[in-house]
């Protein structure tokens, strides 16, 4: 449905995006992950025809949207990272305003407003002013705006930032339902790996302006098939213990957590004895050492050197 070919965006002498190739099949949910500054937002802006690339192309059904952006604008909905609503208008008034921008009129506009309010679970709050809404309700209305014109594809840029777990689950279930029932194609970015695990058919990992890995969840996890992820639980995480782990040349990655440390090591190394010695040297009380199957979070840490939420 959508193909990105050698996409680049350069600001003065700096590449924000360089040599990006990706595709979305109709009816897929595709994840786009990356640390802050990786180039995700710039890429999304070019895919939605808001920013003109320095080089490369974006093709919708084999036709360039750079040459004819109207093609994608008619079938695309965008949920921006920042709330894009008028706080002094009601939910219904916001939807009517944006619906008219989409050139919806009369009975059709009224019908779509009712359908969207039902989809996002805000029918009973339709007359309420948006500034009285919780963060989760604003996020749901933000999604509703993007759905008004019945798009074939939607880009969602971190749509669950800063909201309560109940609203977050509602949004995830709504996206899944729209995809399954209507075949909606979704490009989804998030700082929550469990959201990507739940929603996405395929994933692209981006860093420093380029795609550094892509595939299904299982394909990405196979990147670490020759490595072990070891979870070390301790009574108290001490800086000296972290420093000793980081100084060991056989350890690929070290990630400090609230009650322990996660490390990634080649499978051929048995570090249990060495970890115990390091803990003893750093006067750190070990609680447990567990070898885990690789997760997407481990893959992301391995590829970028950072955990997804450490951005």
From TrEMBL:
<keyword id="KW-0547">Nucleotide-binding</keyword>
<dbReference type="InterPro" id="IPR003439">
    <property type="entry name" value="ABC_transporter-like_ATP-bd"/>
</dbReference>
<dbReference type="Pfam" id="PF00005">
    <property type="entry name" value="ABC_tran"/>
</dbReference>
<feature type="domain" description="ABC transporter">
    <location>
        <begin position="2"/>
        <end position="233"/>
    </location>
</feature>
<protein>
    <submittedName>
        <fullName>ABC-2 type transport system ATP-binding protein</fullName>
    </submittedName>
</protein>
<dbReference type="InterPro" id="IPR003593">
    <property type="entry name" value="AAA+_ATPase"/>
</dbReference>
<keyword id="KW-0067">ATP-binding</keyword>
<dbReference type="InterPro" id="IPR017871">
    <property type="entry name" value="ABC_transporter-like_CS"/>
</dbReference>
<dbReference type="InterPro" id="IPR027417">
    <property type="entry name" value="P-loop_NTPase"/>
</dbReference>
<dbReference type="GO" id="GO:0005524">
    <property type="term" value="F:ATP binding"/>
</dbReference>
């Amino acid at each position: 449905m959508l193909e990105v070919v050698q996409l680049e965006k350069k600001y003065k002498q700096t590449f924000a995006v360089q040599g990006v190739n990706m595709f979305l099949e109709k009816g897929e949910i595709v994840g786009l992950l990356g640390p802050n500054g990786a180039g995700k937002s710039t890429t999304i802006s070019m895919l939605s025809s808001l920013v003109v690339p320095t080089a490369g192309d974006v093709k919708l059904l084999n036709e360039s949207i750079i040459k004819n952006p109207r093609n994608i604008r008619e079938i695309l909905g965008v949920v921006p990272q920042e709330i894009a609503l008028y706080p002094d208008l009601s939910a219904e008034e916001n939807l009517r305003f944006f619906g008219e921008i989409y050139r919806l009129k009369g009975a059709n506009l009224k019908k779509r407003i009712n359908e969207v309010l039902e989809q996002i679970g805000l029918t009973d709050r339709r007359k309420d002013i948006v500034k009285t809404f919780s963060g989760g309700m604003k996020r749901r209305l933000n999604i509703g705006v993007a759905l008004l014109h019945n798009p074939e594809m939607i880009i969602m840029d971190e749509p669950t930032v800063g909201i309560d777990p109940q609203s977050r689950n509602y949004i995830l279930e709504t996206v899944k339902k729209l995809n399954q029932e209507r075949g909606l194609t979704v490009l989804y970015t998030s700082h929550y790996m469990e959201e990507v695990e739940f929603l996405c058919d395929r994933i692209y990992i981006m860093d420093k302006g380029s795609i550094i890995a892509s595939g299904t969840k299982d394909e990405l996890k196979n990147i670490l098939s020759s490595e072990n992820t070891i979870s070390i639980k301790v009574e108290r995480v001490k800086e000296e213990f972290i420093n000793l782990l980081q100084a060991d040349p056989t350890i690929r990655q070290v990630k400090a957590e609230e009650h322990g440390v996660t490390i990634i090591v080649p499978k051929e190394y048995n570090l249990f004895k060495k970890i115990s010695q390091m803990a003893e040297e750093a006067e750190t009380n070990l609680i447990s050492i567990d070898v885990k199957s690789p997760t997407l979070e481990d893959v992301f840490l391995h590829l970028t050197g950072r955990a997804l939420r450490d951005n």
